[in-house]
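Exercise 7b. Backbone tokens:
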């Protein structure tokens, strides 16, 4: 066999493999279309559930910290009020101006502390209310989302069960085809397929590329039908087959 004949034979084999590969990919796309947006929807719902669970856990942690702060400040406020009462009683028993000034300074300090504790307590109460509301609202949304994910997940599993065997067989056939194709040719096919709605190979339709409908010169059409060389569409880059 001459070198030219050998190249033509390889080109014919490659074209046949590419045609078969496109047919397999078309069937895989049909399976994907049958499943619709379910895989993406279930994935999105699961991501939403994870985000909500993290949000709730974070808010519950903040609630726990706020509860501790509220307990601490309430205790400190009670202690400060007891000290304030004792200092007030001491003011009536002082005998010197120096004692009076010292007790008055300490009384004012405790008074400021009481004001700070009361402010902290008020803030903690508001924060606790707000956090509790956030958790309760998000729990309601979480419950609804979990129910939706359960329904969609069951629907997806049903569709996967219906198509899993066919998909596995197609993938196995695809692997057997791909391994026999020259790597550069397969790489071109994949690049165009991903960029052109899943089609890296196109047939001649009424003298035009079946992918983008660009007119193919008559002599090029003859060459394509001979299957002696790989011909690309000059417009869309798809591999043209008879």
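Sequence design result:
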């Amino acid at each position: 066999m001459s070198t030219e004949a050998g190249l033509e034979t390889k080109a014919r084999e490659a074209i046949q493999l590419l045609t078969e590969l496109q047919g397999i990919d078309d069937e895989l796309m049909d399976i994907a279309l049958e499943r619709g947006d379910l895989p993406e929807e279930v994935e999105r719902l699961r991501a939403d559930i994870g985000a909500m669970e993290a949000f709730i856990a974070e808010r519950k942690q903040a609630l726990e910290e706020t509860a501790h702060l509220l307990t601490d400040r309430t205790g400190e406020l009670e202690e400060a009020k007891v000290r304030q009462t004792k200092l007030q009683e001491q003011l009536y028993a002082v005998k010197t101006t120096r004692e009076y000034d010292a007790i008055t300074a300490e009384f004012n300090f405790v008074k400021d502390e009481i004001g700070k504790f009361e402010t902290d307590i008020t803030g903690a109460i508001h924060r606790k209310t707000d956090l509790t509301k956030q958790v309760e609202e998000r729990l309601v949304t979480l419950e609804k989302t979990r129910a939706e994910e359960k329904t969609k997940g069951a629907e997806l599993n049903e569709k996967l069960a219906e198509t899993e065997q066919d998909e596995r067989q197609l993938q196995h056939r695809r692997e057997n085809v791909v391994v026999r194709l020259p790597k550069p040719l397969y790489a071109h096919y994949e690049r165009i397929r991903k960029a052109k709605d899943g089609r890296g190979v196109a047939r001649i339709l009424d003298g035009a590329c079946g992918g983008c409908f660009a007119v193919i010169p008559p002599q090029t059409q003859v060459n394509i039908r001979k299957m002696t060389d790989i011909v690309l569409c000059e417009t869309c880059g798809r591999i043209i087959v008879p």
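Instructor comment: The mean pLDDT is 93. The longest strand covers residues 201-205.
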